[in-house]
Amino acid sequence: FWSGVNRADACWRMYSGRYSGGVSPSTSLQNIAGHGQVPKTPPGKARPPGVVGRATLGDINQHLRTVKDVRDGSILDQLLQAYVSANEIVRMSEDMSDTEPSYQAADDLSHLLSVLDYISNQAAKDIPHQSVQLHVLKTIKILTRKAPNRNLPPRGIATIMKMLSQAQPPPSPSYVSQDQDTGPHHTFRVVSELVNLLLNLCYERDNVDSVLDANGANILAEKLRWEDRDVLAGTSGAIQSICYQPRGRQEFNSLASIIIPRLLQLLNHDNSKVHTRAIGALHNLSSMMEAVLAIRDNKGVPILVALLIKAACDIKDESKGSRSASALGGNEELVCSLAGTFQNISRENSTRKLILEEGGVSPLTHLLFCNYVPAQAAVVGALMNILGPEMEGKHESTRASFKKMLSLALVVGATVSCTKPPPSHPDVP
Question: Whole-number mean pLDDT of the chain?
């Protein structure tokens, strides 16, 4: 039987498939970050708050090296906000451009981690600390888009997990995330940044082990119960990222009776990032049989087939030139993860029969002609799993014709892909 896993569409990843870049701690960031557009900060001084238009990591570290007490964080917060504003959207970030020669070098995050540790111990109850805490997390998240920056020291991982484990949802379950940096919605925003930071960090196997050693599976399972869309999207993405590694899949599959029902619910969420990340997590989890059985036993097959039908209809409409910009069929990550999930769950005999009964074969064949090669390959595996046993006892010519049909469908799909422009994607966080 065919099966597989995939990586989360992580916060660090550009849709071009390349990492964003940075600069090394030994480099003069004032010189390189803005290609000469940002004036140098005099040694030993931070840029005055009134002229902060675009800050670099060098400005932030310079300030933290000269300030002995961060309790008055107004200048630091302005520097952090300026850095986040310039770099949060990957495609618009000059400071994180992978065209810089220092792209492969690690940055100095020690000062930021020290501030994060200090604030986490102060509980960040006052407004200035709330804002600094949020913007420190955003800055570290941005910097961990770059692979060398993901090698955090153990104390960094420990601080992140402590903050995540201690966070409790405010008493407003109907809240939908807004852009407030402080106040009653602060917890949602901080936890969203924490889980997205974990998504980035858990691209590295060693970080996955550190997170799981800190009871990460149970902590993230608890965050799936929250109702905030950004927390749910980030948590699902972190689970997907962790479950790319064998140990991650094993740990979360031990919680399949808790995790799987909630992820299945999130497939019907009205936010596209939430249901896209949820199907990505299910894809990786379903490479193990415990998750496949949990999907089957929690009536997940009809839910998955319904989502498949929507995506297939969108792809069919696209071939007629009538697909809308918000259609599921135009979401490459969702389509590939959905196809991969069917490839995985179709290995189990009773689940395979449920897919047949729910009418899953026809929409799967539509995905053979989509614009995404990984999805096409997964569909072939799913159809081989589902229909292969039906071919037992058939004449050899019938089985050969079936294989030839799949091959021709892939050729047609690849040919169509060559004639289409690449799909558009939303901005990554």
Answer: 78
